[in-house]
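Re-running the complex after MR caught last week's input typo. The corrected sequence lines follow. Everything else is unchanged.
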Amino acid sequence: MSAGGAPFIGANTGLTLAAGALFGATAGIVGTFALARRRSLLADVAAHASLPGVCLAFLAGEALGFGGRNPLLLLAGATLTALLATWSVPRLARLRGVGPDGAIAVSLSFFFGLGAVLLSDIQTHDSGAQGGIDHLLFGNAAATTRADLATMASIAFACTILVTLFFKELAALCFDEQHAAVLGIAVRPFDLLLLGLLVATVVAGMQMAGIVLVVAMIIAPAAAARAVRGSLTRVTAVAGTIGAVAAATGVLVSRSMDSMPTGSAMTLVAATIFIASLLAAPWRRQGSSA
Amino acid sequence: MSAAIASVPLQLDRFSAGYSPTEIRARDVSLTLVRGSLTALVGPNGAGKSTLLKGILGLTPVHAPDAVRFFGEPLSRARARVAYLPQRAEIDWNFPASALDVVAMGLYARIGLMRRIGGAARAEAREALASVGLAGVERQPVGELSGGQRQRVLIARALVQRADLLLLDEPFANVDESTERAIAGILRALRDAGTTVLAVHHDLGSVRANFDDAVLFNEHAIAHGPVAVTLEEQRIARAYGLPARAGSAA
Amino acid sequence: MLQRIIPTPSALLSACLAALLLALAAGCGDASAPGSASRTASADAPKRPLLVCTTPMVGDVVRNVAGSHADVEVLIAPGVDPHLWTPTRTDILRILEADAVFLNGLTLEGRIGDSISRAENQKRPVLRIAQTIDRRELITDAQRAAYFDPHIWMDPILWGRTAPPVAELLTRIMPEHRQDFESNAARYIERAKGIDQACAQMLGTIPNGLRELVSAHDAFHYFGRRFGLEVRAIQGLSTESEASIADIENLVAIISSRKIPVAFIETTVSDRTVRALVEGCASIGHDLAVGPPLYSDSLGPAGTPEATWEGMLLHNARVISQSLGGNR
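Corrected-run output:
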């Protein structure tokens, strides 16, 4: 069922396309490092932990009287709890009898559970301004506005600049942390930088792919780019390109169907590219050992 | 700082290191390496050899930085003169980087923050790869290299640092014979050029062939001196907790 | 990892922070609890039957028919989207405690779950008031024929007709008040007719080319049918599904080709999609204004005129008429 007179790429498609591609590229670039440093699940923790932040920001905005739906306030709240959760993971992991995977499970479910509680609390508010927060679970890319695009562009720009500036240090950190430390590279600050980049990407992607799926957009392009043989610079660039292409294709696919959610289309395309990369690079299926 | 101390590449004075206050794996180690020495750190499995090396470099949660001096200075002021080669198995070789990328990592400190790896750095890295016999694999992903090749890449990464003190963790572990010979040759050449080398080594059989000196270690430094003297049978038995005469090769 | 270990006070700290967050969440829950369910009657009266309603609109008709013979409790607070509302544990307990439960039905309360069937299994009287309306009068979903549009309170006449079935059920519980219930229901129908006339008068002044109502989600089909407005929305009958780009682009094309001047936001739905619509129209040179918020799936906050079904419909009719060039 096609539109009566609507151009295939109108302004709304264009906005979603631009924001999606920027997000995809950022996710691919940041994802390359997250994957290399085995931070995939941490990205998932960050995504799920952004829910209570959004809810708290909503409640705070409401209490302070400037409305709960201020997007920048919501992003700030999401960033705060996402950072808190990812920060708590290594600390929980150090506790006796918890371990790294236990820490991730505990942190993810605690923060997401908190978010669910807050969300169901918000639904009982007679503020008359609820709505919209629910959509962060699966994203609402179709309704991208120019303000959203501007936010996305600034986050993408900041992340890309930071990765470019500290490319060497991030690479050294991800490949061989101990060697980097002996070289005098400040491991902790750069680890925090990577965490910050990850959280920024997750928060930016919430509006696009949603809390539940955003991690797929961070990991799938980076994993697919591993099929490329060559320098880290090249793999990173390819991951960014795959992310952008996957997101843009997802937008166009969802545009061509009547009721296809954009965020899910993006992740499906990214996952398809990943599977294709496995078929194209058969040596990867054997895996390599140290 | 007296000239005498400044010329000592590594000095430990009752140094301890471990993973937690209740898990100290190296205790009260005192040790002095002279310039241009080629020393093996030997001892049984679990003796704490790697922990000692990491502790010296500040990589373990618990360590005593005041008990370590590099060329008379704390590590923070001597980093440019020290190179470290971790165990090959501790590195994620699936990392998407080429052999040249990894070797160039040795140059990161010298290149400095926010600066890109230039042509000169790349040339230097290429040269180092050639010197370990890996000319031609520059663009190959490290994940596709063999174990021996990976070890050589790490050696090349240490070489480009042009350090005066080289600390290696098991450089000969699980490598083929030709790689072992090549690495031994490189270490000897470094010694001849005045570089001080300390390597964790577990194979008592090949210590004599590849090293001049040895430190026999099991939580403490039991003996330190020329290989032939240090690895005298009774001492080995003590370090390895074996009855005397039970054999010299572990 | 690279410094000497400090025996993890940071772990303690994170635990404290977590506890704090939890306390905060609990605090919010407490603070809002009284707002979510309000009893209408005073406490000194002898114990009266408890009637639990889902939406404020259902509460309006039940309260009017029951008069002072029962306590009426509304579960869904004003401003809350009934499509997305999920009953809390307290809500479920109230449902199971109630002497009768009234809901809109026709899957408006999409997430009410099985608490209703549990109440029915316990032989509680349950009335889905929208389902008392003759099916031939219901509007079906454009995409799924078996699915009826639940937003029947938008047609005053139709909604007025839900009063007699309510009276009938109340009579079964309290036969002694039959006459009161019947006269209350009759009065509700009369009131509905009055509202209908007032709305028709206001909306009748909208010029012919402008009789188009664009809103965030498809809640206004009964309203449009009753008062002769062409109705379009970004999202479908339920807000549970996400608006697609195609939905937005198609609507942009229609709005700009018909020169529709205004799109309305709703109190229960995020305004994001409407803002996207405005930008889409702006890009092709059509200036679309964002209209004042309409009450679609809920009533206004307590204490305002819009807190009743009557006030809500009159508000909607007034702002729609004003925004589309009517003279009321």
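None of the earlier attempt is carried over here. Chain C is about 45% helix and 10% strand. Chain C touches chain B at residues 1-5, 7 (CB under 8 Å).
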